[in-house]
Design the sequence.
């Protein structure tokens, strides 16, 4: 039998298939991925060593889908960091089901190291101490990841509140958007608060 013109499986297809599985199921397993790609589980191991490498391919596919970020580290550090946070959130928001997997697996990819290098240089140049850099990055990432999940949460997250039992909460909810602006407002408010707090941590 002649070999197919297009290989049935390659690393790009594995990464894309894994993202689809994570979006649909909120988890990833080798048997489920093999079914998604129409191959036997053993066929995957001709291309990857295991689950960790598949998650790495998911990150790579996500980077290819979203394209290069457009944040400019030559701008004032608050502006550059805000642009990075928004770009990062936008990338994760395209595949929210994959967030738990991508957020808890070690970052061994050179292209991820290059991204963190830019952020570390930005913060060090701004005057933060070396010991502050990773806590600042991790704090911002934690917020971004939660915000990405919030984008796919219901527009109304607090419901069935009785005004008699919770009058203050009811007044606050009266002024809370009941569409996708809720998540956007929460992100804008939280990001502004984080950057203001970061500024206060700059060594005198």
Sequence:
């Amino acid at each position: 039998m002649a070999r197919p013109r297009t290989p049935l499986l390659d690393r790009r297809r594995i990464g894309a298939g894994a993202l689809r599985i994570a979006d649909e199921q909120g988890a990833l397993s080798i048997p489920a991925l093999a079914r998604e790609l129409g191959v036997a589980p053993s066929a995957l191991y001709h291309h990857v060593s295991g689950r960790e490498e598949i998650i790495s391919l998911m990150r790579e596919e996500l980077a290819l889908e979203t394209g290069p970020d457009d944040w400019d580290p030559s701008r004032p550090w608050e502006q550059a960091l805000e642009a990075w946070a928004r770009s990062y959130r936008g990338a994760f928001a395209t595949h929210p089901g994959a967030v738990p997997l991508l957020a808890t697996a070690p970052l061994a990819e050179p292209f991820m190291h290059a991204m963190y290098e830019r952020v570390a240089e930005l913060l060090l140049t701004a005057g933060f101490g070396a010991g502050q850099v990773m806590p600042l990055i991790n704090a911002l990432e934690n917020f971004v990841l939660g915000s990405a999940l919030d984008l796919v949460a219901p527009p109304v997250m607090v419901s069935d509140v009785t005004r008699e039992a919770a009058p203050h909460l009811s007044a606050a909810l009266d002024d809370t958007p009941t569409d996708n602006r809720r998540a956007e407002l929460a992100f804008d408010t939280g990001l502004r608060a984080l950057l203001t707090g970061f500024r206060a941590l700059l060594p005198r």
